[in-house]
Specification:
Beta-lactamase, 14 strands, globular, alpha+beta
């Protein structure tokens, strides 16, 4: 029988999403062993708690874990230059800032914590012509390979600053990381994810979206995703997100993954320390958020956001979230499956945390 705290968390979640007609479906998993709280809730027509859904940029945590594993095996270093690995033909033209070519200075660390200065193909305004988002809406089923994205970025997106001298969120940078992984391990990124993370952790409902050979889940069961009034679940944008977010999974599988990180099961303690070393740079678009190596930190703010709420993990552009709150030892995972709804998903998460904190 579900305990009172779990019931309260579930009720608040349902109440929050029912109030917003734009939210068609949503998920919330809350796990706290200390208080014996294990909520795995869902909302929406034809939805179930174990339904697979896209996680968008939470996929960057998976990419960072793979890089961390490679560092532990001395296959790569965080300070290694990206051009030395991928070659000038791929990266040249990505970072000419104020007339100076800085692409040779970009390191793996710069890409992981978004301090490379490389622009973001997904959200930055292009030098001329249509933005990538406009192109996706006009031709939603057109496929863009990682190299297509990088070449388009060279021609259309300006770099923001010298490497290591600022913060600018960049999916383009994570495309480069995916290519680095493939180059060094000589294996498609989808197969690396399966071999190094999904299979060892028994994530039986998790797949790399662009992996054509996947047979683990029925694609027809994947949760709908909305962009305005459009159901965009089948748009190529998700499969093309590659190392920046191209993963389909369930809340339960994400819990297995995040617990394995926290308890040093798939990366060591020193690697987790690297991942949670927060950059001193920040962005006006991500106020209150610091970034490590593939992980975000929700920082405390005087009066508005007390220290006890500080948590780390990642959010996605479709209102997906995966966080751990050290104060209460609580995992919070879920999604509202709608573009540009990440702030509303954060609100759902913090309402659950408030219930837990009142009980302690």
């Amino acid at each position: 029988m579900e305990n009172t705290l779990s019931s309260r968390i579930r009720d608040r979640f349902i109440c929050s999403v029912e109030k917003n007609p734009q939210i068609k479906n949503a998920f919330l998993l809350v796990d706290n062993d200390v208080l014996d709280i294990h909520v795995n809730a869902c909302y929406g027509l034809n939805s179930s708690a174990d339904q697979p859904y896209y996680i968008a940029s939470i996929g960057k945590v998976f990419t960072s874990v793979i890089i961390g594993q490679m560092v532990e095996k001395n296959l790569i270093g965080y300070e290694d230059k990206v051009m030395d690995i991928l070659g000038s033909s791929i990266v040249d033209g990505l970072h000419t800032y104020k007339g100076i070519n800085f692409v040779g200075e970009i390191t793996i660390r710069h890409l992981l914590n978004h301090t490379s200065g490389i622009g973001d193909y997904f959200s930055d305004k292009p030098i001329q012509g249509k933005s990538m988002l406009q192109m996706i809406l006009e031709f939603p089923y057109k496929h863009y390979s990682p190299l297509d994205i990088i070449e388009w970025s060279k021609k259309n997106i300006k770099p923001r600053f010298k490497p290591g001298k600022g913060f600018h969120y960049s999916d383009t940078g994570y495309h480069l990381l995916g290519l680095v992984i493939e180059k060094i391990l000589n294996m498609p990124l989808a197969e690396v994810m399966e071999k190094n993370i999904f299979s060892p952790l028994h994530m039986k409902n998790t797949v790399f979206a662009s992996y054509e050979k996947q047979t683990k889940i029925d694609e027809g069961t994947i949760c709908d995703v909305y962009w305005g009034e459009n159901n965009v679940k089948d748009y190529s944008i998700f499969k093309d997100d590659y190392a920046g977010g191209g993963i389909i999974t369930t809340s339960s599988d994400l819990l297995l993954f995040f617990k394995a990180i926290i308890h040093h099961q798939i990366v060591g303690e020193s690697t987790l320390k690297q991942m949670t070393t927060w950059s001193t740079y920040s962005s006006v678009k991500l106020i209150g958020i610091a970034y490590g190596l593939g992980l975000m930190y929700l920082k405390s703010t005087p009066l508005l956001f007390p220290e006890k709420f500080s948590s780390f993990g990642h959010i996605g552009s479709i209102g997906s979230f995966m966080f751990y709150n050290p104060t209460t030892k609580t995992y919070l995972i879920g999604s509202v499956n709608r573009f540009q709804y990440h702030r509303k998903s954060m609100n759902i998460m913090f309402k659950a945390l408030k219930v837990i904190m009142k009980a302690q």
